[in-house]
Amino acid sequence: MKDPRLEKLAHLLVNYSVRVQPGENILINAKGEVPDLVQALVSEIYKAQGNPYVQLVDPVISRAIAMNCNEKQLAVMAENEKQLMEKMDGYIGIRAASNINEMADVPGEKLSMYSRLYERPVLDIRVPKTKWVVLRYPNASMAQLANMSTAAFEDFYFQVCTMDYAKMDAAMESLVTLMNRTDRVRITGPGTDLSFSIKDIPAVKCSGLRNIPDGEVYTAPVRDSVNGTITHNAPTPYNGFTFENVCLTFKDGKIVEATANDSERLNQILDMDEGARYIGEFAIGVNPYITTPMKDILFDEKIDGSFHFTPGQCYDTAYNGNHSSVHWDMVSIQRPEWGGGEIWFDDVLIRKDGRFVLPELDALNPEQLKE
């Protein structure tokens, strides 16, 4: 029997997130075992009179390729993928790996090469040139990360992923307006006192058009304006390893000191290229149904009462000039049970302990966004 929740999710992805129009080419890229959702998406795309294309990727095979990859091979792979992506109007990416640590033992230099020569060139076409959305799939691996039974996690997942994103979109307008007129930002909390400017860098709302689940408003700091220290209290996975207690110190935009549960590995990533030690994104998370980290960034970066600060590549839509093969969303949660914290815009307190305190932002507090 088909799960009606999958059909509802497929309808949302095709008709709200990607907004498929007649004649458009839509690529479904599924990593892991997700046949039921892929079938539902193919059906919905046809209903919208679009043309579905499907890539089924086995993460175990991707690891095998990455273990001994070489530059010539990756260039050929990237060229093939780029030619396909150039012909697409939309992209739906499903991530359903049974083991999030599949790449954990790939040598660092091979991972860097794989990202720089294969993944990044394709992303550079897909992100600015297609209508795209990326989501995780509620498998047993994700349930384990969330410390939940598979059935309970599925219930949570579909509640989060099919919420009223149009309502969230409208509620975000006031925050976007405020951020667009803000110059100086200061963030404080346990182990954190950070200041930077976001002047003249656009704020962008994320309300179900690019990620499912969604729920953030992002911009970027002026590249050389970041000063101070930030200590992240949420675990932050990267290339198969989970970092804890990441503490970064900035001087004139650059990360000059970085420590974690594996400081050597952390610094190796930050040394991949010049841009990896500068910040490409600052975002505020507002999804009312996501409250605790589950070591999956598509969920964790939207946690209610959180923000994330991202070493590496900036987005063209909030451009600050930083370029890198790295884009690493590191999350901090500011609700009281996580130690609290404050966000100030131009010396005005806008959020305290995870709750917006300005009347014009009240619509983004959790009780207002829940259905």
Description:
- This protein is of the alpha+beta class.
- Helix content is 33%, strand content 27%.
- The chain has twelve helices and 20 strands.
- The chain has helices spanning 4-17, 35-47, 59-67, 71-86, 108-129, 140-145, 150-161, 165-171, 173-180, 263-270, 297-300, 366-369; strands spanning 25-32, 51-57, 90-96, 131-136, 184-189, 192-197, 204-206, 211-212, 216-219, 227-231, 236-238, 241-243, 247-251, 254-259, 279-285, 306-311, 330-333, 342-345, 348-352, 355-356.
- Strands 14-13-10-6-5-18-19-20 form an eight-stranded antiparallel β-sheet.
- A hairpin with a 2-residue loop joins β19 and β20.
- α1 crosses α2 and α4 packs parallel to α5 (108-129).
- The model has no long low-confidence stretch (mean pLDDT 94).
